[in-house]
Sequence to fold (100 residues):
Amino acid sequence: MAGNTIFPSSNGERDAYRKTVLRNFTNLMTLLAVAHLATFSKVHIRKQKLALRRLSSGEQKSLTAAPEPGLEPVQGHNAPPFPRPPRDSPIMVALTWVTQ
Fold:
């Protein structure tokens, strides 16, 4: 059998095959990175336009707005940027049980 048709047999063929695989992988990663950045910037631009529209219409989100019903605010310098779920919620019960 002179050579396998699926895998390259000589060193030169092997090097060319590796270069092709590496080039294809690099091209794929570049394409994915560009697509990700394009999606991110499109979403970011959309959010900026919405914020500008809100500002121009006089609508503003109050920074001191009351928390949603059922959610208690967290106090302190290391408070998360979102309200904590109620203490009797299943996730809080599980976290309390696991951390004891």
